[in-house]
Amino acid sequence: MKDELDSKDIQILSLLLNNARLSNKEIAAKIEIAQSSTHDRIKKLTQKGYLKGAFAQIDQKKLGLNIEVMLAIKLNKQHRSIIVDFTEKAYQLPGVIQLFHMAGNNDFILHVAVKDSDELRTFILDRLSTLGYIQSTETTMVLHNERVNNIL
Fold this sequence. Notes:
Layout: H1 7-18, H2 24-31, H3 35-47, E1 67-75, H4 80-92, E2 96-101, E3 108-114, H5 117-128, E4 134-141
Antiparallel strand pairs: 1-3, 1-4, 2-3
């Protein structure tokens, strides 16, 4: 599908990937095309599924979320109903930033932010361990997290 994109489309995607709050006017000026063309291109990129949404980057520490971890989760069974149930529950767990369904040693990885080690302990023992289909969890602390956005 990337073959459908020309250099201007890729420039638009790249600009929005790094700052989704740019206006059509700002994008048009940066890539040197008319605002109306920019608007039309963004509309087409959205309709074709290249643009799925815009996201805010929040300073977690300002919210008191001082610990960030990657929680690797192994399920005791690989049934579709279990995977669907876990995914639905993970979306509702406070502190979950991102969910990855994996192939390999772990079935899921949850990217989680919590205020302190007590909250992390509660998250694991009271929210995850109570799910009967979880075989094990492994926690890895994130020391630094930064969006690179180098896919285009």
